Amino acid sequence: MKKDVQSWFDILKYMIDKPKTTSLAILYPISRTKLATTISNAALEIDLKAIKLEVNPAKEFETVPKNLAFILDNLTEDDFLIVLRGDNFINKLKLNNHFNTFSGLINSGAKSLVLHMLISDKNLTYLSSIDYEELLSYTVALRKKLANFKKVRIQTPIGTDLTFYPREWYVVPIKPDNDIKNGLLPAGQLYTTPIETKTSGTIVIDRCISEFPIDFKDIIQFPKIETELKLEIEKGRIVKIEGDTEADFLKEKCLARVDYNGYTLGEITFGTNPSQSIENNIAIQEVLRDTIHFGFGLNTHLGGDIVSNVHWDAVIEFDHDKIEYY
């Protein structure tokens, strides 16, 4: 068995409940045909034939193609759906009434697994081919530890020193089950929405900053960070930005176009995936165990109350053993 097929064979064995699951559907854009074939071949190794649903997001649709809508709406509890995101086809094909990236299928009891659209096939396989029992054990243990404290302090050798008061801590779904029908890959995130007015200190960003989706339409790509930039936080809001060209880009190209809440820190997330990577990709960096990331702006999708015309993330390198609790 080829290496990639073997990796997905192991992933599917963990994620899919056999023999209860009787059929597998793989929904993917043309750009992800190779990965869809790899996963389909891996499914055969666990005696599960995959139905491959290829879509072309370059084609304009006024409504969801009827045959595709019919298939998605008629999957049963005995079925499993894998969505290989890419080319923003969920929005382009107007599938939002049938499928939600975070909660899965809307009109069906079938379980689903969603793969990140900003990560290459190779890296998706690498980041997903892990020991999931160890990942779950680590993440749950960290959640239990953090839940015992009302105040948390994050410090790093290069200057981050932030104190915050978390609300509840949540594990981003890993494996679909009867309670949580949808899982996300790559897995490995534990997050909270902090009490905004009690969050203060300094964040020194050394890994990466995400793209800025202004009004969630106009995407501003943030450059690779060559020199750290510093954010001063008072009562949950950015009040000062220092640094070189990266800081200027943040202030002049990005934050100049966000609303008031785009400056508000509404998410703090620990990556818990044991993989390692220094690639300048926010989707990779935010799940790694040696990082923590800070989300600004909109957080209603995380259970918070902040409404904004943007959600953006800043990732720093951080040793989880250095967390201070009070």
Question: Can you walk me through this structure?
Answer:
The chain has 326 residues and is α+β, with helices and mostly antiparallel strands. Helices cover 23% and strands 29% of the residues. The chain has eight helices and 21 strands. The chain is globular, with a radius of gyration of 20 Å. The mean pLDDT is 93.
How many strands in all? 21
Largest sheet: 6 strands, antiparallel
Overall body shape: globular
Question: What distance lies between the first and last C-alpha atoms, to the nearest angstrom?
Answer: 50 Å
Q: In angstroms, what is the radius of gyration? A: 20 Å
Query: Mean pLDDT, as a whole number?
Result: 93
Q: Strand share of the residues?
A: 25-35%
Tally of DSSP helical segments: 8
User: Uncertain regions: pLDDT < 50 for 5+ in a row?
Assistant: none
Count of separate structural domains: 2
Arrangement of strands in the largest sheet? 17-16-12-8-7-21
Helical content stands at 10-25%
String of helices and strands: HEHEHEHEEEHHEEEEEEEEEEEHEHEEE
Structural class: alpha+beta
